């Protein structure tokens, strides 16, 4: 950035950590119990954003929060 440069909303957006079609790990948590399962991202998302993910075991589409590259989490 340069002094006196206008900051646009695009410059403030979080980078996408997950892209549509990426293979992800879905982590379902309940207290100290965590279950991991394979999934496929149905939309793009950055850190802590909610995206749609297909559970590859059940074929169900769920909403989950992006917690890292290739990783999403849902609360049980």
TrEMBL record:
Does Transcription show up as a keyword for this record? no
Assigned keywords, A-Z: Bacterial flagellum biogenesis, Periplasm
| Superkingdom of this protein's organism | Bacteria
- Classification via Pfam families: ChapFlgA
Q: What family classification does the UniProt entry report for this protein?
A: Belongs to the FlgA family.
Alphabetized InterPro entries for the sequence: Flagellar_FlgA, SAF_FlgA
The source organism is Pseudomonas syringae pv. avii
Gene Ontology terms: biological process:
bacterial-type flagellum assembly
Instruction: Output this protein's name.
Output: Flagella basal body P-ring formation protein FlgA
Function according to Swiss-Prot or TrEMBL: Involved in the assembly process of the P-ring formation. It may associate with FlgF on the rod constituting a structure essential for the P-ring assembly or may act as a modulator protein for the P-ring assembly.
- Flagella basal body P-ring formation protein FlgA SAF domain spans which residues? 3-74
Which compartment or compartments is the protein found in?
Answer: Periplasm
Q: Which GO terms describe its cellular component?
A: periplasmic space
